[in-house]
Amino acid sequence: MMQASSTTIVSFPELGWGPWTLQRFLVEDLFGGLTIAWYGVIICCAMILACAIILYNATKREGFVTDSFLDYFIFAIPLGVVGARAMYVLAKLEEYESFGEAIAIWNGGLAIYGAVITGIVTVLILAKIKKHNPLQVFDAVIPGLLIAQSIGRWGNFINGEAYGETITGVKLPWGMVVNGVGPVHPAFLYESLITFTGFLLAMFVVYRFKKIHGQVFCFYLIWYGLGRTLVEGIRTDSLMIGSLRLAQCIGLASVFVGIAMLVLLQVFRKEPDASEKENLAEAEEEIDESERTIPLRSEEEAAAEMAAALQTDDEKLSDNQEKTEETEDGTDH
Question: Are 164 and 183 in contact (CB under 8 A)?
Answer without folding.
Answer: no
